[in-house]
Amino acid sequence: MTLDRTHDVHTRSWLASANASDGDFPIQNLPFGVFRRAGSQEAFRGGVAIGDQVIDLQAAAGSGAFTGLAGQALQAASHSALNALMAMGPEAWHALRLALFDALADGATGPAADALRGALVPQAQAEMGLPSRIGDYTDFYTSVHHALNVGRVLKPDDPLTPNFRWLPIAYHGRASSVVPSGTAFHRPMGQAMGPGAAAPQYGPCRRLDYELEMGFYVGPGNAQGRPIAIGEAESHIFGMCLLNDWSARDHQFWEMAPLGPFLGKNFCTSVSPWVVTMAALAPYRVPFTRPADEPQSLAYLDSAANREAGGVDVQLEVRLQSPRHRAAGHAGDRLSATSFRHQYWTLAQMVAQHTVGGCNLQPGDLLGTGTISGPTPGEAGAIVELSRGGTQTVDLPATGETRTFLEDGDTVILRGWCARDGRARIGFGECRGEVLPAVG
Amino acid sequence: MTLDRTHDVHTRSWLASANASDGDFPIQNLPFGVFRRAGSQEAFRGGVAIGDQVIDLQAAAGSGAFTGLAGQALQAASHSALNALMAMGPEAWHALRLALFDALADGATGPAADALRGALVPQAQAEMGLPSRIGDYTDFYTSVHHALNVGRVLKPDDPLTPNFRWLPIAYHGRASSVVPSGTAFHRPMGQAMGPGAAAPQYGPCRRLDYELEMGFYVGPGNAQGRPIAIGEAESHIFGMCLLNDWSARDHQFWEMAPLGPFLGKNFCTSVSPWVVTMAALAPYRVPFTRPADEPQSLAYLDSAANREAGGVDVQLEVRLQSPRHRAAGHAGDRLSATSFRHQYWTLAQMVAQHTVGGCNLQPGDLLGTGTISGPTPGEAGAIVELSRGGTQTVDLPATGETRTFLEDGDTVILRGWCARDGRARIGFGECRGEVLPAVG
Question: Are residues B114 and B169 located together in one domain of the fold?
Answer without folding.
Answer: no
